[in-house]
From TrEMBL, chains A, B:
InterPro entries: ADH-like_C (IPR013149), ADH_N_2 (IPR041694), ER (IPR020843), GroES-like_sf (IPR011032), MDR_fam (IPR045010), NAD(P)-bd_dom_sf (IPR036291). The lineage of its organism: Bacteria, Pseudomonadati, Pseudomonadota, Gammaproteobacteria, Vibrionales. The keyword Oxidoreductase applies. PANTHER family: PROSTAGLANDIN REDUCTASE (PTHR43205), PROSTAGLANDIN REDUCTASE 1 (PTHR43205:SF7). The keyword Calcium does not apply. Residues 18-327 form the Enoyl reductase (ER) domain. GO terms for molecular function: oxidoreductase activity, acting on the CH-CH group of donors, NAD or NADP as acceptor. This is NADP-dependent oxidoreductase. It holds the Pfam family ADH_N_2. Keywords: Oxidoreductase.
C-alpha cells in the first residue's frame, strides 16, 4: 500500500508558491521493534511554518531541509505498533509533517479520543500554548487592565483574548474583516473589535481604549502596530509573537521610534514556543480543562486532503482563513 | 544680600534657545524653624532636563511649570540652619534647580566633603545610579557576553561600560568623536569604541562584535541603533535609557522592524530612574565604594557661573561635551 507525502523542494522567494513543493508516493513502511505507525488524520497549518521554509539560520529552530517532508504538527491514530506505550488505537499529537503516515519511536503525545481533533489542534496545540505562555508569562495580566491583541481572530489571538477576559481584563481585538470582528465580540465576548482596514482605525482604537493600553499581544505587525504602540500606558507590556504582515514582504515596514519605550518604560518581549517546550503539557492541561468547561470557544477552518495544504497555507497570510486552519486527511 | 536663579519662561519649540529662560535676582530668604539654607556650588546638567522642559504630560515626571526655577540636581553646603539633621557645614546633594541658594526642609542627602563634588555628580548621582540600575536590573550581564553601549563617552554610558568590564563582559562603546573613542579604550579600558560618524560603522561594529551582541544599552537612538539591533543574539537584552538623538528633532526616525524581536526573542525594556528612587542610596554606596577603589574613572566638563547653564545645556545634544556636564557656581 502506498501513501502520499509532500516534500519541500525549494526555498520560497517571497510568497509561497506551489512549485516549491513536490508530492511523492511511498510504500507504507514496515515497523521495527520499538516503533509505531501513525495514520495522520488532521494536520495543523500555522504561520510559523513560513519561517521553517526559509534558510534563515538565525531563526529559532532549524529550517526544513530541502527534500525533507514539510514540517507541521498534527493528530493521528496508531494503526500498527511494536511499542508498549503506544498500542494500536492510541490517538497521538505532535510533529509529523505533511504526510499521510508517520513512523515514530516516541516524541508524540497521547491525546483523548473523546475530544474532536479540530478542538485539540485549535485550543490545546501550538496556538493555545502560545497564547497561554504569552499572556501569563510575558504580559502578566491584572484585572482592570486593557489588552489589545492583533490577529485577534486567528488561532493564537482568539485564545489570548478569551483567556484575558477570564482574568477580568478589557479586551480589544484587531482583525482583518468585519465578519471576524463580529465573531470576536458576539461569540467570544471581546469588549471591542476593530477592522484594521478601517480608515478611521486610530479613532476607533482610541474610543475602544479610553484608559489607554496596558498590554499588547502582537501577532501581525503592519499598520495597526504604530497606533497601538502610541496608546501604550506607562509600564505597559508587549508580547511580540509574530509579524505575519511582514513574513511575505521583501521590505518589512519600519517599527516605531523607541522614544516611547523610555517615556512609558515599556517592556517588549519577543518569544517563540520552542524555547518553552517543557511547559507544553502544563499549559495544555489547563487549556483542555477550560475548554471542557465551555470557557474557550474556537472555530476551525478545515481543508480536505493532503494537496489542499499547498494552496491552503497562503490563507494564513492573506487573512482569508476563518479560524484555525486545519487539513483533514 | 541678593542671589540669582533662572526660571523657565517658555516651552522649547524644538531646540533649547536662551529666550525660554529668565534670570531673576532675589533676596536670600530668612529661614524658619525646621528649614536650612544651602549655597549651591555645583549643578548637574543632564539630557533628561530636555524632557522636564516640555509640557508632555505623558512623561515620567511632571514638567517644570512655567515661571518656576529650572529643575536640576546639584551639590551645595548648608550655610544657615534651623534643622537639627542639617547643621551648618553639611554638604548635601539633591534637586535644587538653577539657583545659587536653596531653602529646604529635607529632601536632600548628606554627602562626604572628602570627595570632590565633580566626582559625586559624575559617579554617584543620577548618571551613575542610572547606569547601575540599567546594567544590573535590566541587562543582567554574565561574564563572556558582549555589550554595546551608545553615548558611551557620556556620563551614563561611561559608567555602564566600566561596570560591565568589572563583570567580565566584552564592552564596545559607540561615541561621536575619535577623541571620545580614544578615551574609552585607552583610559576606561573598553575593548573597542566606534565613532558613529564613520562611514563604515556597520563593518567596524561587525569586527568589534564577532560573536554578535548579547546586551545593548541604548542612550542615543539615531543611526547606530539599526546596526546594533541587527547584530543582537538570540535572547539578547536591550535597556533603553535615552534617545538623545531624537530629543531635539521634530520628526524622530522610525525604529527597526519588530521581526527580529520574535526571531531572536529579544527583551527590550525602557526605564527611567524616578521609578527607582528607593534604590538610589543602595546604588550610590556601591558606586562610591568602586570609585574609592579606583575602579571607576570619570571626567567632568565644568562650566562656570549660573548663566553658563543656558547655553551649556545644548552641549549635551550636540555631543560637544567631554564628560559629565557640570556648572560650578
Amino acid at each position: 500500500m502506498n501513501y502520499s507525502a509532500i516534500l519541500l523542494k525549494k526555498r520560497p522567494d517571497i510568497t509561497i508558491t506551489s512549485d516549491i513543493f513536490e508530492k511523492v508516493s511511498k510504500p507504507v513502511p514496515e515497523i521495527a521493534e520499538g516503533e509505531f505507525l501513525v495514520k495522520q488524520t488532521h494536520m495543523s497549518l500555522d504561520p510559523a511554518m513560513r519561517g521553517w521554509m526559509s534558510a534563515d539560520r538565525e531563526s529559532y529552530i532549524p529550517p526544513v531541509e530541502l527534500g525533507e517532508v514539510m514540517r507541521s504538527s498534527g493528530i493521528g491514530d496508531v494503526v500498527a505498533s511494536r511499542h508498549p506505550d503506544f498500542p494500536v488505537g492510541t490517538r497521538v499529537m505532535g510533529m509529523m509533517g505533511w504526510t499521510e503516515y508517520f513512523v515514530a519511536k516516541g516524541g508524540l503525545s497521547p491525546v483523548p479520543t473523546s475530544v474532536p481533533q479540530e478542538a485539540l489542534l485549535s485550543v490545546v496545540a501550538l496556538p493555545g500554548v502560545t497564547a497561554y505562555h504569552g499572556l501569563y508569562e510575558v504580559l502578566k495580566p491584572q484585572a482592570g487592565q486593557t489588552l489589545v491583541v492583533t490577529g485577534a481572530a486567528g488561532s493564537v489571538g482568539s485564545m489570548v483574548g478569551q483567556l484575558a477576559k477570564l482574568e477580568g481584563v478589557t479586551v480589544v481585538g484587531v482583525a482583518g474583516s468585519d465578519e471576524k470582528c463580529h465573531w470576536l465580540t458576539e461569540t467570544l465576548g471581546f469588549d471591542a473589535a476593530i477592522n484594521y482596514h478601517d480608515e478611521d482605525f486610530a479613532a476607533k482604537l482610541a474610543t475602544a481604549t479610553p484608559n489607554g493600553i496596558d498590554l499588547f499581544f502582537e501577532n501581525t505587525g503592519g499598520v495597526a502596530q504604530q497606533h497601538i504602540y502610541q496608546r501604550m500606558n506607562a509600564h505597559g507590556r508587549v508580547a511580540v509573537c509574530g509579524m505575519i504582515a511582514d513574513y511575505n514582504t521583501a521590505t518589512p515596514q519600519p517599527g516605531p521610534n523607541w522614544m516611547n519605550i523610555v517615556r512609558k518604560r515599556l517592556m517588549i518581549q519577543g518569544f517563540t514556543m520552542p524555547d518553552h517546550f517543557h511547559r507544553f503539557a502544563e499549559y495544555g492541561q489547563k487549556l483542555a480543562a477550560l475548554m471542557m468547561d465551555g470557557k474557550l470557544q474556537y472555530r476551525a477552518h478545515t481543508l480536505h486532503g493532503l494537496d489542499s495544504a499547498i494552496e491552503g497555507i497562503n490563507l494564513l497570510f492573506s487573512g482569508e482563513n476563518k479560524g484555525k486552519l486545519i487539513v483533514a486527511l
